Structure formats: C-alpha cells, structure tokens
Amino acid sequence: MTMPRTHSINLRSILMSAVFVAAALALSTPLLPAQETNSEKGKRTSERVEQPSPGERPPRTGRTRGPRRAPPPQATDGSRQAGTPMYTEAPDGIGVTLRQGASPLPYTKDTVTYVPWEEGSKMDPLKVGSKLPKNSVAWTNTGTEFDLNKAAQEKPTVLIYYRGGWCPFCNVHLHELQTSIPALETMGYQLIAVSTDTVEALKAYDVSGLKYPLLADPDLKLATNLGIKYKVVKEYIQHVKEIPDGRAFDMKKRNGGFLVTPSAFILDTTETIRFAYSNDNYTVRASQDALLKAAKEALAK
Fold first, then answer.
1. What is the rounded distance in angstroms from the CA atom of residue 187 to the CA atom of residue 104?
2. Could you tell me the sign of the dihedral formed by the alpha carbons of 79, 82, 88, 93, in that order?
3. DSSP single-letter state for residue 8
4. Domain extents for the chain?
5. Checking phi first, is residue 88 left (phi over 0); if not, alpha (psi -120 to 50) or beta?
6. Average pLDDT over residues 231-246
C-alpha cells in the first residue's frame, strides 16, 4: 500500500514542476522582442538628440511655418532707456530714428505698425526751389500771431514742423535740435519749430532748456501751405485718446482729425526752400548732421 502512494506523490510533483516551467517559458518569451524594441527605440532617440555641427540648424519637424517678420533694429550706441536718442540711420542717409525699437523703414501695412493716415489724404510736401506760401502764420504761446514770411525775410531760417508736445519722439527731437543752436547761430540762422498744438497746449509745454521759439498751428493752415497735412485713421485717434501721463486728447476735436508728417525746411531770405525733408515714419527725423550740412550748403547758393 505504501508504494503506490509514493508514486502518486512523485508524479504529482513532476506534473506541477512541468507546469511551472512551461509558465515561466511562456512569460519570458515576449520579453526578448520587447527588450529589442526598447533597445532600438533608445538607439533612435540617441540618434535624434545628436547635436548639429556649428552653424548647422537641425531640421524642423511638424507643421511648416511661414517667414518670420524681421525684428526692429536695436540701438548700437549703448542707449537703452525709452526716450533716449537712437542714432539708427534711415535708408535715405538723412534721417535717424529717435527711440530704441523704432524702425527706420517707411510705414506700410506690413511693417511694425499701422499707417496712421487715411488712404488718399496725404499731401505732397513742398520741394526744394519752392517758395514759402504767402500768409504763412502761426501763434505764440501768448496767442500772438507770428508772421513766418516776415521772419524768413529777416534771417535764413531752419523751420521744423513737429506733431505736438504729446508725441515722445517730438520731445526727443526738440531737445536734440537745441544742441545745433550754437552752430546755426554762427552761420546766421534762426531755428523755429511749429506743431499742431493749440495755444493752450503750447503754453503748458515746458520750454526750459530750449533757446528757440515754439509756435502753434492748431487749424493746420500752415501745414496745408507746406503740404504735410493728412487725415488720421480712427484707430490712431483712439490711440491718442489713451496716451498716458496726462498727454491724451481728442484729435478730432482739437485738429479736426488731421495730423502732419514731421518735416524740416531750410529757407533763405528770399523765402526759397533750399532743403526739405519729410519721412512717413514719424519716428524718423532729419539728423543734426544733415541739417547743419544743408544749412551750410544753402548759404553758398
């Protein structure tokens, strides 16, 4: 009776061992391809993160992107604070930008900002050889009429027309012009600056440090004579309403919704224009070097 029981126990042990071995083999079999797959995946990952050689750009993956807009020029003279002059020469070789981040390129609908004038409203500025139109007058900060025709007959004149005391680019420009006063006076010139400001706005402007007159042309009659007036788009009128630091105003109420292209003119005593410069980009103004050179050359004519 003992022998059959022993054989039964041994047979059962053998069968259970066989089952365990088979199960172990079944579980270990799929690990091999999985290990191979992970190895291949690691190899592909290693290949993908290889660094490109210097100057070589890795290929892009995914959706193709369109061309990027070129960034605005950066200051090269070390100036970084907003409002400090930025001497980036405009493509015409005459103008310079007046603040960091401003583009010297002419405005179009595809550049750094929208065009502030209504299409078809821009006038043609007076050109070299033209005469200053008669009845060209402006107003002092006391409300006194200033006769530009008479002033130009008395002295060679550098006439600057800027947008207004609310414009940060204009403020930088006005103080830059002050640095040219000694050289201009040595040559016998007078410097006169006119804007679209009202007499009241002009009266509130801080003229300390400026040794030349600022005049007002709120109805833009002088601007019309000079050919630099245009109709402003509604988006820009709204922008001016939101200017911070107490400089905001309603351009439509003040100036009828009109503005000017900043310009510079040099006149001889016959009221003839010897130099004229306007740039559709209102961050660009004639450089001081260009003005002084033109003033000197005008005296030789």
1. 30
2. negative
3. H
4. 95-299
5. beta
6. 87
Closest CA to 219 of 192, 248, 259: 259
Model-wide pTM > 0.90: no
pLDDT digits (tens, 9 = 90+) for 286-298: 999 999 999 999 9
- What's the residue count for the chain? 301
Cβ neighbours of residue 115 closer than 8 Å, sequence gap 6 or more: 107, 108, 109, 233
Phi, psi of 196 (to 5 degrees): -85, 5
In angstroms, the CA 112 to CA 168 distance is 17
Beta strand pairing status for 263-267 and 157-161?
A: antiparallel
Query: Which residue carries 């922008």 as its tokens?
Result: 239
CA distance linking residue 2 with residue 38, whole number of Å: 55
Residue among 197, 145, 147, 150 nearest 170 (CA): 197
16 token code pair: 């259970």
Listed residue (291, 286, 283, 263) closest to 104, CA to CA: 283
Under CATH, which number does the domain 95-299 receive?
3.40.30.10
What burial letters (b/e) apply to 111-129, b meaning 16+ CB within 10 Å? Answer: ebeebbbeeeebeebbeee
